[in-house]
């Protein structure tokens, strides 16, 4: 979060070379320019370079969803996104949702006790926000009746919410309460 | 993951030229499988040619009634596209049965086709695997292989192809468009992936440096009833134990066209040509479907621990085909 | 729930919101890898690629020449560790490879990318030896140990179980199999270590930092006073973080060698072999009963495996010493040491696999008798613990069964099953649950401040249970003050010593000490006149001698699970439609966080029933499932309507709060309830978990092809 003026990070002093490039990411509204090892995933840029540790590393292979953030408005697994390939992108993490306070979905997670250990929680929240937008944009899911018309918002019942959030594992088993929280904000 | 050079290509030509100029290069699409495999050390490209932002991101309705899906269109956008949902529903369903919302937002059409097997031995660089390291042996043949192939496998490789999308494309007679040093060409989706034979390191018919530029869904299957069904260990976010994509045209009480492909059974989406041939002209009954699929699956050679896949594929196939029969005929 | 105590406006029992909740939902809660320290380096371990043998040589030259690499630790150059009693922590000390995946090197580098890359360039030469990793019921190396885990005797026998089993008019003799299972908490095992001279600070992902500190002191030859271990937020553990793990040893070694802070966050793929697993069990159950269903003989025999490093005996027959009255009984454990990764604690060790077997066998018995399985359990209810003869301090199993049956509409299950349509077979199942009440001595301090607020300090760990919240509630009541006046500090070994979050004993153990400290502080405050001194007033408590005193009572929680499943005969897929459980677990101290824990345990039980399994790879000696794509933790779509209820239980023989434990009982018996529902739906009895489509479909086909098959 913080100021919106352009920030040139310390790491940017490292020279671009065959294996490094200068990259600008707009993170939670702030442009951040860094010189990055091409191998660095967005998740590690957030956690290691920008000290935004809300996005979590659960598996590092796109198999758990704990690292979910929004890139150009869409939810993705930040562990599988090479940061160099995202130059110029807008990234929103759990730290950037509240606009100072708490986003209604964050409040709903709190109200519904939709977590225990909290490690999957930022990913669940970002994923749910992405999923809500996808449904609004008319994206179907595996459980959507194929007859549902295209191009219109898709209704989100509990079964739809469950299917759409299935890319976010929760080992504490908070699933039913997470669905409650998501229902709270789409009502 | 090895250090690598990175080139963002601005055009298809630029991409193939950059590929040629960088030994050990790989094309990077959404990265959902390539980056995963690079972290495992399975893929060790010297350079990534980023094709993710190429102007191949359109879904175009062509004058002949076919539909071209650009290689960089994301899986979620293909699945949601009205033309796909309305006219080739099995493709939308297959995409939505795969991976997760996050992965589908990142994964590209081209990348989905080029994803590699999830065989645990392929993914573990400390174990033998002919696909990863030709000549090292196949650990799955006598190892843990419940999820492996029952059709078309060889002594050198029993891996399956993990894509759901490719199974639907195969059933729907889609073609894969390619661009390379020899210009453009296209191959049937059902023939794009290979059987392992004695060259399991080659997953597809793609030539070195060739780039997938798109897939084309033909007018011939547009608007026909089609379905995709997948059986898996958990209710979502799991690879297929077996899956079936099918398209069916029934006229005058008999089958005039059947396109059937299995997923999870072979090194490629398995187009069930014998079953299709057996159904042509036949009445679309459950018995006829079962008989046709039995003919197809007679070729199955299950491994020690995956014989269940044969009846599973048959069951799912019969179920899907039965549901495709128009109510007036049924 | 009408709680008579609620009328007193007490803090305990109220659904107080999690104290750290806001941090967790905003992403500001910091876990073990998330403490920024200047100059912090990252490390990546290298695992053995043979199942048994010796490291002949390690060539680190390539790795050391790579950019950013600071050090490569191997058994030849790693710091020598002091003695302690967990052999899995003696990493990089010798050339022995006890199992595949054992750590053989650690690369320390400036960045994670550099460390991971260089780890692939550490070349290890092995002298491999033949290995044996497969558990069989008749393995020649199997033996009956002195003890199973938890100090339970390996064998108990009453009466003449064999003769009475043989003589019983109704008999069940069946073998049940539970595969290896993995905890896979969402946060991988992680430690960040930092030396400042000979002072050591470690941020670790652990269920108890008191033990971590003690272990580090022994390993590194330090006074405990020179070590601080914190675990402010922990991303789950489920037993696998109940003891110090190699990450904390490696991070501490690496930080000493590199001379700067080092984080070791174990890659997910490495976890399966180095932080424990639930050992597989092969369990033979023999139940003999009279025609009324009363058990006359109960024989529960367990085979399990352990590693070459330690004797770990999953105590799966132990619940059969508690659950049902039977005049004749034998419960025993055999263990086979194999060249496998070391098994360890996983949620409800013993009870979870053991009750799967016992409660499945009870369902088979009900079937054989033609009795309602709910009634069969009630018929065999007992007021005295069969094994010890002690009276139960409280036991409301029958009430849980009846209340659950009512809420679930158990009586309507046959109607629902008949409504099975098309390819979906619907069935319902029931199973009991139990978990022992455990409690350990703890210390705590309470501090009254002049501004009227209080600070309670205790090295409890909040692994997601809501420990901060519930301890503040306990404190507020003992102090007679509103909840928001109480500040609570946990998760740091500099705080008063406390036991781990494990064995469903955390809240009871910590709460007892907090209650006592706060009660003493209240007494001091009552005796004090005038304003408080500037630094306030203190009281401390140590429950040694009271919390661990022998009880004349057998103390256990009980519960009952009811499951409804749909079985797809096309695919063999089983999906749970409803899961409803009722527990009797003493006083519920926070209904909000308790409900989450119950549901969480039930969800893990659903996974145990349907999706979770690890396969010992006979050729290579490790597990075939090493990631979260192949080890199938249930996803949202697997978990439909889940309800947890409880009955008010007032038990004066527990602790000052009147609570039992709730963290584990949710997983106990769940898999049996689901398996029994699958039997009800299909008519086929499955005796091996998980109930995946391959097994279901194969059995349905065999049944269809069997003579006289009668499909529903």
From TrEMBL, chain A:
<dbReference type="Pfam" id="PF00111">
    <property type="entry name" value="Fer2"/>
</dbReference>
<dbReference type="InterPro" id="IPR001041">
    <property type="entry name" value="2Fe-2S_ferredoxin-type"/>
</dbReference>
<keyword id="KW-0001">2Fe-2S</keyword>
<feature type="domain" description="2Fe-2S ferredoxin-type">
    <location>
        <begin position="21"/>
        <end position="97"/>
    </location>
</feature>
<dbReference type="InterPro" id="IPR036884">
    <property type="entry name" value="2Fe-2S-bd_dom_sf"/>
</dbReference>
<dbReference type="InterPro" id="IPR002888">
    <property type="entry name" value="2Fe-2S-bd"/>
</dbReference>
<keyword id="KW-0560">Oxidoreductase</keyword>
<keyword id="KW-0411">Iron-sulfur</keyword>
<feature type="compositionally biased region" description="Basic and acidic residues">
    <location>
        <begin position="7"/>
        <end position="20"/>
    </location>
</feature>
<dbReference type="InterPro" id="IPR036010">
    <property type="entry name" value="2Fe-2S_ferredoxin-like_sf"/>
</dbReference>
<dbReference type="GO" id="GO:0046872">
    <property type="term" value="F:metal ion binding"/>
</dbReference>
<protein>
    <submittedName>
        <fullName>Oxidoreductase</fullName>
    </submittedName>
</protein>
<dbReference type="InterPro" id="IPR006058">
    <property type="entry name" value="2Fe2S_fd_BS"/>
</dbReference>
<dbReference type="InterPro" id="IPR012675">
    <property type="entry name" value="Beta-grasp_dom_sf"/>
</dbReference>
<dbReference type="Pfam" id="PF01799">
    <property type="entry name" value="Fer2_2"/>
</dbReference>
TrEMBL record, chain B:
<dbReference type="InterPro" id="IPR005107">
    <property type="entry name" value="CO_DH_flav_C"/>
</dbReference>
<dbReference type="InterPro" id="IPR016166">
    <property type="entry name" value="FAD-bd_PCMH"/>
</dbReference>
<dbReference type="Pfam" id="PF03450">
    <property type="entry name" value="CO_deh_flav_C"/>
</dbReference>
<dbReference type="InterPro" id="IPR051312">
    <property type="entry name" value="Diverse_Substr_Oxidored"/>
</dbReference>
<dbReference type="InterPro" id="IPR016169">
    <property type="entry name" value="FAD-bd_PCMH_sub2"/>
</dbReference>
<dbReference type="GO" id="GO:0016491">
    <property type="term" value="F:oxidoreductase activity"/>
</dbReference>
<dbReference type="Pfam" id="PF00941">
    <property type="entry name" value="FAD_binding_5"/>
</dbReference>
<dbReference type="InterPro" id="IPR036318">
    <property type="entry name" value="FAD-bd_PCMH-like_sf"/>
</dbReference>
<dbReference type="InterPro" id="IPR036683">
    <property type="entry name" value="CO_DH_flav_C_dom_sf"/>
</dbReference>
<protein>
    <submittedName>
        <fullName>FAD-binding molybdopterin dehydrogenase</fullName>
    </submittedName>
</protein>
<keyword id="KW-0560">Oxidoreductase</keyword>
<dbReference type="GO" id="GO:0071949">
    <property type="term" value="F:FAD binding"/>
</dbReference>
<feature type="domain" description="FAD-binding PCMH-type">
    <location>
        <begin position="1"/>
        <end position="222"/>
    </location>
</feature>
<dbReference type="InterPro" id="IPR002346">
    <property type="entry name" value="Mopterin_DH_FAD-bd"/>
</dbReference>
<dbReference type="InterPro" id="IPR016167">
    <property type="entry name" value="FAD-bd_PCMH_sub1"/>
</dbReference>
TrEMBL record, chain C:
<dbReference type="InterPro" id="IPR036856">
    <property type="entry name" value="Ald_Oxase/Xan_DH_a/b_sf"/>
</dbReference>
<feature type="domain" description="Aldehyde oxidase/xanthine dehydrogenase a/b hammerhead">
    <location>
        <begin position="26"/>
        <end position="130"/>
    </location>
</feature>
<dbReference type="GO" id="GO:0016491">
    <property type="term" value="F:oxidoreductase activity"/>
</dbReference>
<dbReference type="InterPro" id="IPR037165">
    <property type="entry name" value="AldOxase/xan_DH_Mopterin-bd_sf"/>
</dbReference>
<dbReference type="InterPro" id="IPR016208">
    <property type="entry name" value="Ald_Oxase/xanthine_DH-like"/>
</dbReference>
<dbReference type="GO" id="GO:0005506">
    <property type="term" value="F:iron ion binding"/>
</dbReference>
<dbReference type="InterPro" id="IPR000674">
    <property type="entry name" value="Ald_Oxase/Xan_DH_a/b"/>
</dbReference>
<dbReference type="InterPro" id="IPR008274">
    <property type="entry name" value="AldOxase/xan_DH_MoCoBD1"/>
</dbReference>
<keyword id="KW-0560">Oxidoreductase</keyword>
<dbReference type="Pfam" id="PF02738">
    <property type="entry name" value="MoCoBD_1"/>
</dbReference>
<keyword id="KW-0500">Molybdenum</keyword>
<dbReference type="Pfam" id="PF20256">
    <property type="entry name" value="MoCoBD_2"/>
</dbReference>
<dbReference type="Pfam" id="PF01315">
    <property type="entry name" value="Ald_Xan_dh_C"/>
</dbReference>
<dbReference type="InterPro" id="IPR046867">
    <property type="entry name" value="AldOxase/xan_DH_MoCoBD2"/>
</dbReference>
<protein>
    <submittedName>
        <fullName>Oxidoreductase</fullName>
    </submittedName>
</protein>
């Amino acid at each position: 979060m913080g100021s919106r003026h352009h920030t040139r990070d310390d790491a940017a002093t490292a020279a671009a070379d065959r294996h490094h490039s200068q990259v600008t990411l707009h993170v939670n509204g702030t442009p951040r320019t860094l010189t990055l090892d091409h191998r660095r995933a967005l998740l590690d840029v957030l956690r290691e370079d920008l000290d935004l540790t809300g996005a979590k590393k659960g598996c590092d292979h796109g198999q758990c969803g704990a690292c979910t953030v929004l890139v150009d408005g869409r939810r993705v697994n930040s562990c599988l996104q090479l940061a160099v390939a995202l130059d110029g992108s807008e990234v929103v993490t759990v730290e950037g949702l509240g606009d100072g306070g708490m986003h209604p979905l964050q409040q709903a997670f709190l109200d519904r006790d939709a977590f225990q250990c909290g490690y999957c929680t930022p990913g669940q929240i970002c994923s749910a926000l992405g999923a809500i937008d996808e449904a609004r944009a008319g994206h179907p899911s595996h459980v959507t009746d194929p007859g549902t018309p295209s191009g219109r918002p898709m209704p989100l019942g509990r079964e739809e919410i469950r299917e759409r959030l299935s890319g976010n594992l929760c080992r504490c088993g908070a699933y039913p309460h997470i669905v409650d929280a998501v229902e709270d904000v789409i009502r | 993951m090895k250090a690598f050079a990175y080139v963002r290509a601005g055009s298809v030509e630029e991409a193939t030229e950059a590929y040629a100029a960088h030994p050990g290069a790989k094309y990077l699409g959404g990265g959902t499988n390539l980056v995963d495999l690079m972290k495992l050390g399975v893929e060790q490209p010297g350079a990534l040619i980023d094709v993710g932002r190429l102007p191949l991101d359109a879904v175009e309705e062509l004058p002949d009634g076919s539909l071209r899906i650009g290689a960089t269109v994301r899986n979620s956008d293909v699945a949601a596209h009205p033309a796909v949902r309305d006219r080739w529903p099995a493709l939308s369903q297959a995409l939505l049965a795969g991976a997760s919302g996050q992965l589908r937002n990142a994964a590209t059409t081209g990348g989905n086709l080029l994803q590699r097997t999830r065989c645990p031995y392929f993914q573990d660089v400390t174990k033998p695997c002919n696909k990863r390291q030709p000549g090292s042996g196949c650990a799955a043949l006598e190892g843990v292989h419940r999820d492996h192939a029952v059709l078309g496998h060889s002594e050198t490789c029993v891996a399956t192809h993990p894509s759901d999308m490719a199974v639907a494309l195969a059933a729907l007679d889609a073609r894969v468009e390619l661009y390379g040093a020899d210009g453009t060409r296209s191959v049937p989706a059902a023939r794009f992936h290979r059987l392992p034979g004695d060259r399991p390191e080659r997953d597809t018919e793609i030539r070195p440096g060739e780039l997938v530029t798109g897939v084309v869904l033909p007018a011939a299957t547009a608007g026909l009833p089609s379905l995709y069904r997948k059986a898996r260990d958990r209710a979502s976010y799991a690879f297929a134990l077996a899956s079936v994509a099918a398209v069916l045209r029934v006229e005058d009480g008999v089958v005039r066209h059947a396109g059937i492909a299995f997923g999870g059974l072979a090194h490629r989406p398995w187009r069930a040509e014998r079953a299709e041939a057996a159904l042509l002209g036949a009445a679309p009954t459950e018995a006829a479907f079962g008989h046709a699929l039995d003919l197809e699956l007679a070729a199955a050679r299950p491994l020690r621990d995956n014989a269940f896949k044969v009846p599973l594929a048959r069951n799912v196939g019969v179920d899907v085909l039965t549901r495709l029969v128009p109510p007036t005929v049924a | 729930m009408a709680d008579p105590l609620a009328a007193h406006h007490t803090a305990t029992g109220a659904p107080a919101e999690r104290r750290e909740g806001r941090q967790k939902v905003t992403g500001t809660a910091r876990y073990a890898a998330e403490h920024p320290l200047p100059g912090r380096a990252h490390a990546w371990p290298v695992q053995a690629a043979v199942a048994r043998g010796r490291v002949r040589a390690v060539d680190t030259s390539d790795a050391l020449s790579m950019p950013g690499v600071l050090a490569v630790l191997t058994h030849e150059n790693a710091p020598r560790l002091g003695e302690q009693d967990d052999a899995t922590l003696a990493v990089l000390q010798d050339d022995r490879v006890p199992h595949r995946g054992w750590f053989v090197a650690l690369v320390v580098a400036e960045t994670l990318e550099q460390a991971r890359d260089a780890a692939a360039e550490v070349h290890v030469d092995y002298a491999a030896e033949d290995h044996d990793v497969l558990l069989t019921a008749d393995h020649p190396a199997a033996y009956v140990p002195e003890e199973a885990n938890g100090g339970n005797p390996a064998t108990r026998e009453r009466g003449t179980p064999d003769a009475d089993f043989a003589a019983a008019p109704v008999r069940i003799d069946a073998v049940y199999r539970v595969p290896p299972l993995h905890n896979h908490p969402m946060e991988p095992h992680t430690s960040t270590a930092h030396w400042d001279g000979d002072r050591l600070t470690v941020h670790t992902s652990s269920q108890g930092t008191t033990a971590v500190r003690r272990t580090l002191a022994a390993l590194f030859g330090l006074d405990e006073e020179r070590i601080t271990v914190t675990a402010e937020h922990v991303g789950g553990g489920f037993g696998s973080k109940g003891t110090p793990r190699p990450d904390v040893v490696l991070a501490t070694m690496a930080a000493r060698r590199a001379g700067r802070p080092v984080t070791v966050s174990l890659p997910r793929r490495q976890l399966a072999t180095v932080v424990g697993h639930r050992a597989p069990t092969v369990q033979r159950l023999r139940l003999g009963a009279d025609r009324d269903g009363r058990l006359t003989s109960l024989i529960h025999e367990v085979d399990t495996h352990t590693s070459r490093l330690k004797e770990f005996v999953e105590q799966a027959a132990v619940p059969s010493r508690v659950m049902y009255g039977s005049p004749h009984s034998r419960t025993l454990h055999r263990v086979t040491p194999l060249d496998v990764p070391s098994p360890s604690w996983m949620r409800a060790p013993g009870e979870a696999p053991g009750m799967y077997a016992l409660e499945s066998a009870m369902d088979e018995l009900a079937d054989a008798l033609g009795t309602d399985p709910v009634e069969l359990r009630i018929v065999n209810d007992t007021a005295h613990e069969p094994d010890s003869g002690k009276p139960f301090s409280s036991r409301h199993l029958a009430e849980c069964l009846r209340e659950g049956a009512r809420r679930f509409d158990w009586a309507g299950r046959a109607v629902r099953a008949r409504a099975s349509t098309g390819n979906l077979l619907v069935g319902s199942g029931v199973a009991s649950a139990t978990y022992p009440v455990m409690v350990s001595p703890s210390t705590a301090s309470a501090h009254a401040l002049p501004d009227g607020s209080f600070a309670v300090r205790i090295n409890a760990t909040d692994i997601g249970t809501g420990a901060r919240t519930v301890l503040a509630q306990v404190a507020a009541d003992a102090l007679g003050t509103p909840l928001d006046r109480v500040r609570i500090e946990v998760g740091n070994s500099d705080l008063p010593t406390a036991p781990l979050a494990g064995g469903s004993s955390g809240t009871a153990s910590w709460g007892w000490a907090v209650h006592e400290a706060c009660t003493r502080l209240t007494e001091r405050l009552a005796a004090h006149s005038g304003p408080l001194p500037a630094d306030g007033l203190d009281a401390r408590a140590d429950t040694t001698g009271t919390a661990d005193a022998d009880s004349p009572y057998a103390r256990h929680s009980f519960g009952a699970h009811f499951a409804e499943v749909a079985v797809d005969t096309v695919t063999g897929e089983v999906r749970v439609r409803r899961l409803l459980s009722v527990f009797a677990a003493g006083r519920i101290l926070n209904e909000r966080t308790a409900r989450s824990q119950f549901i969480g345990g039930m969800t893990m039980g659903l996974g145990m029933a349907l999706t979770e399994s690890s396969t010992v790879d006979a050729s290579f000696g490790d597990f075939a499932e090493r990631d979260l794509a192949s080890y199938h933790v249930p996803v949202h779509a697997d978990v439909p309507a889940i309800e947890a209820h409880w009955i008010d239980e007032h038990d004066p023989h527990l602790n000052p709060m009147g609570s039992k434990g709730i963290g584990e009982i949710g997983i106990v018996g769940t898999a049996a309830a689901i398996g029994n529902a699958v039997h009800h739906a299909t008519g086929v009895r499955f005796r091996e978990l998980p109930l995946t489509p391959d097994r279901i479909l194969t059995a349905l086909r065999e049944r269809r092809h069997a003579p006289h098959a009668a499909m529903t």
